[in-house]
Amino acid sequence: PNPAMASLKKAEEQIREGSLFTWLRDLVKCDTGAQVSSISATSAKLVGLYFSASWCPPCQLFIPILAQAYRQIRLEHGPQAIEIILVPLDTEEALWRVHMEKMPWLSVSLENREAVVRLFTHFQVSEAPRLVILDSIGTVVSENARGGEGFGFGCDPLTAYNKLLEDL
Description:
The protein is of the alpha/beta class and 168 residues long. It contains 7 helices and 6 strands; from the N terminus they run H-H-E-H-E-H-E-H-E-H-E-E-H. A 6-stranded mixed sheet has the order 1-4-3-2-5-6, sandwiched between helices. The longest helix has 21 residues, at 57-77.
């Protein structure tokens, strides 16, 4: 094995372990509320934090578009190409569960309200929906990947994905 590559990989793992990802891994649950593999949740090439709420009409309109993009990217580039994690604004579990049923990705649990607030504050989220894209070590690639050259109405998801990769 190449010592330089092994060293780089170890450095990336150390950065990841000391970053937002270590904290985020402990918060992520699947839609059933069960704990998911902490590594698989944040080991994708790109990780999207999707700030959304069940009561938000623009969020409702964006979910099917983002879900289609998510499936298309993973079909074309594999499951490690992208992962999305819902950061919910909801406060009622029943509404959150109904909201999650529309999404093929993971969620921060409502039990972790303080963590959700910390994420909103950390990323300075002032409106929903918002999609923050991180790279594999937790660096922000796009502060808002919704619309424009990102994901949304009239946007090509594969073009958006490739553009985000260029920005790494």
